[in-house]
C-alpha cells in the first residue's frame, strides 16, 4: 500500500490494525450493522446514532453537490458515498479494507442521476487521490491519536477547497470507563481502542498545523444514541460557504 510521507509510524501501525479488524475480525458484524438486518438492542442504538451522524455530516454539505468532488475517507460499506452521489457528487470512496470495498460495490450498484462513485482500496491520505471540494471522514479517525488526527486533517485540508467534516470520539467520564471495561463490543470482535479526545485539545493541535491555517473550526455537533457517542466537527476554508455557519 502507498504509504505517503504524511503519515507517522503510529498512524501506519494503527491503520494496519484497523485493516485487520475491519477486513477480517469484524467484517460480518460490520456488514450486518450497516445493513437493514435485525441486530441486538445495543447495536440498534449504534445504528440509529450512526444514521443520525451521517445525516448531520451530509446536511453540512451544499444541498446540490452536482459537479463537486467529494472524498469519503474510510467509506466502509459506502452508505454516505451513495447519498452524496445521489445529490450529484463525484465521489471518491476509499477504505483500507478490500472486503468492505467489495461489499460497498455490491450494495451501491448503479448511481441514478449525474453523480458517481469511484471505490478505491487504500489509505485516505494518498495524495494520488487528487484534490476535493469537500472531504468527509465519518468515524474513520476515531481510532487514531489526537496528534495523528491533526496531521491527517492537515494532509486532507491541503487538498480541500471547501470543508473537511469528520467525527471524533468525545472524552467523557462514562466513555472512558466503558472503554476501560471493554464493554462496547463482545470480545471476539472488539475493535482497536477508540481514542477519546476533547474538541478543545484538537483545536489546539489544528492551530499548530500550517496546512490548516486557512481553515476555521466552524461547527460541532454531538450525537448521543445509546451506545453510540460521537462529535461531528466541520473545518471550513475561510470564505468557502456551506458548512461554515457557526452553530
Ligand atoms: C467505523 S468504520 C466507518 C465506515 C464509514 N465511514 C461509516 O461511517 O459507515 C471506519 C472505517 O475507516 C477505515 N479506515 C481507517 N483508517 C483508514 C485509513 N487510514 N485509510 C482508509 N480507510 C481507513 C476502516 O477500514 C473502516 O472501514
From TrEMBL:
UniProt-listed Pfam families: Cons_hypoth95, Mg-por_mtran_C
InterPro entries listed in its UniProt record: Mg_prot_MeTrfase, Mg_prot_MeTrfase_C, SAM-dependent_MTases_sf
Coiled coil: none
Alphabetically ordered keywords of this record: Methyltransferase, S-adenosyl-L-methionine, Transferase
Keyword Methyltransferase: yes
GO molecular function: magnesium protoporphyrin IX methyltransferase activity
Top-level taxon of the source organism: Bacteria
GO BP annotation list: chlorophyll biosynthetic process; methylation
NCBIfam families from the UniProt entry: BchM-ChlM
Stated name of the protein: Magnesium protoporphyrin IX methyltransferase
